[in-house]
Amino acid sequence: MVISGAFKFRGALNAVLSLDEEEAAKGVVTHSSGNHAAALSLAAQIRGIPAYVVVPKNAPKCKVENVKRYGGQVIFSESNMKSREETAIKVSLERGAVLIPSSNDARIISGQGTLSLEFLNQVPELDTLIVPISGGGLTSGTVIGAKAKNPTIRVFAAEPKGADDAAQSKACGRLITLSQTNTVADGLRASLGDLTWPVVRDLVDAVITVEDKEIVEATRYCYQILKVAIEPSAAIGLAAVLSDNFKKNPISSCSRNIGIVLSGGNADLGVLFESWKN
What is the dihedral of CA 123, 248, 176, 101, to 10 degrees? Predict the structure, then answer.
């Protein structure tokens, strides 16, 4: 697990270090439900610049606390994407801070791509990778890096059925944006963008969708059997591999050496334990 508790630090650090001195002096701003917010705050702290973070009011408390722990200045917005985006743009205009999206950004995508390179360096015999998908930054970087290193590797994206814009987009061949989402995987509620969608469309082999109950069970399995502390959003790759959707997919029939990306461990334990009870 990388520092800040999620893969997001890879892209955030790459983005912050790519800024010239004049840009960096005014700081950075983003909107995020949690993991990118904390990652950008830490990256900004490392470079010694301000980080302004717009967080929806319904973000998990543990993720808000992570932002503050790393020195980010929290600005709350309404829970919908429109409010998040408008608030972030307002802060950028008022303070001159550079807006760094959580996913739809070439610097972010490049940083996330280091994950697949490390994975394949450690386990070169992998023939399949399973990656959580939301805004598509991790998926895009992973599939670009993986297929550059091994063109025959299969890359699947795993997505909650309650936030399945990627699956719908792949099915109809055009970008679909959902007006609302409903999933226990709070880190997988964002939508693909104009940079990430073409990569997902052209390079990802398939999108596997799973129900929330499957995500909860996969999270439980990681805690109880594997002894790995992760958040539900990170467990979706395991949930996908265990699902009938994956087993019955003709593309996955040849998969023998499967790598699953466990993307983060910033879980709100109160919410997580309550989901197990239910």
Answer: -20
Rounded to whole angstroms, the Cα distance separating 89 from 105 reads 15
Rg (CA), the chain: 18
User: What was the pLDDT predicted at 63?
Assistant: 75
Q: How many residues does the chain have?
A: 278
Place of tokens 């409010």: 83
Cβ proximity of 159 and 207 under 8 Å: yes
- Write out pLDDT tens, residues 237-273: 999 999 998 988 888 888 999 999 998 776 666 666 6
| Residue 2: per-residue pLDDT | 64
Sign of CA dihedral 74, 68, 140, 254: negative
- Catalytic one of 4, 32, 33, 103: 33
pLDDT along the chain (278 residues), means of 10: 75 96 96 86 96 88 85 90 91 96 95 95 96 96 97 97 96 93 87 96 97 94 92 94 90 90 75 64
What would the pLDDT profile of 37-53 be if each residue is shown by its tens digit? 889 999 999 999 999 99
Distance CA(170)–CA(197), nearest Å, equals: 9
What would you measure as the largest C-alpha separation in the chain, in angstroms?
54
Report the C-alpha gap between 113 and 117 in whole angstroms: 7
| Separation between Cα atoms, residue 199 and residue 136, nearest integer Å | 9
Active site residue 8: yes
With b for 16 or more beta-carbon neighbours within 10 A and e for fewer, the 15-48 pattern comes to bbeebeeeebeebbbbbbbbbbbbbbbbbbbbee
* Amino acid (1-letter code) at residue 33: S
Q: Which of 8, 63, 147, 170 is catalytic?
A: 8
**Amino acid letter at 245?**
N
Active site residue 33: yes
- As a whole number of angstroms, the distance between CA 92 and CA 70 comes to 20
- Nearest Cα to Cα of residue 31 among 54, 15, 13: 54
